[in-house]
Amino acid sequence: MAFTNIQFESIKRVYDERRMLNQAESDRRRVYVEENIPGFKELSDKMVSLSMEHAKQLLAGNVSSSDEYKKEFSELSDKKKELLKNASLPEDYLSPIYTCKDCMDTGYIDGQRCHCLKKMAVSMLYNNSNINDYLKSVDFSMVSDKYYTGDELTSFKDTYNNAVNFVKNFDNDFKNLVIYGTVGSGKSLISACIARSLIEKEHTVLYFSASALMDLFSRYSFDYKKREDLYSSHSDIFESDLLIIDDLGTEQVNSFTISTLFTCLNERFLNKRSTIISTNLSPKAIAETYTERIYSRLVGGYTFCKLYGPDIRFKTKFDRSNA
What we know:
Blueprint: H1 5-36, H2 40-59, H3 66-86, E1 108-109, E2 112-113, H4 115-128, H5 132-135, H6 150-168, E3 177-181, H7 187-200, E4 205-209, H8 210-222, H9 227-239, E5 242-248, H10 255-270, E6 274-279, H11 283-301, E7 303-307, H12 312-321
Parallel strand pairs: 3-6, 3-7, 4-5, 5-6
Antiparallel strand pairs: 1-2
Helix pairs in contact: 2-3, 6-7, 8-9, 10-11
């Protein structure tokens, strides 16, 4: 995942704050020890002087002093440890403090992202997805075919396989999906499972209801006082690795939303940014509602997945109440 400038600055601030707070705690400990443990500061000053003298000797070409230096330095260090021990403090009380000892709060180990940075990135991606709490509660193990039969079961299996392969091949195979069908048939659940799987792989995913997406576009276009505040969200819609538009057809459809929808879908398609659309509308209804131009873009660049059958949400709720 490549961080956006805003994401990078946000993460950088977290690590800067960690280092600042840890350094402040280290300074507090040092002052406490020097003020409350007699003789400790004097030992520290001797070690500094010893190191400076040793450096002078090395610059003068006298390398034979190294063994004696190491011996004296070790003795002074042991005395400091003994003083800390006598004060009921751990030997490493004055060692550098790190929130993550592996990367020493840099976020990187040998040029690669540390596990702490990866964890922070995933957490940020969840928070930016627009449905953070819901995504954390779903995964593909929750998707079941128990309520489907006959042709409905065949459609479900095709859709499920398309979803799993979409995630599996996301990095190498540019694809877009339209998941359509009856109310409660599992369209939003499958979309959310895809979103979670990709976020866990550190991909940027945005999840909008169609009405919320069009509302954001409208405010960005017409509310000039808020435009600067909305700039980041507006840019992310076009730049995120995956955009999920849920419940297409529930928003107010007019010339503005139709034009805006086409621009969004077309720019993402041209830039090879994947999009998933879930809708209760049939392909024919999509063509009738959103013009032939949008329908043509979908037909030419999206895989259509049909889900129909019983209301899974109602069935699941009914089963729980009768368990």
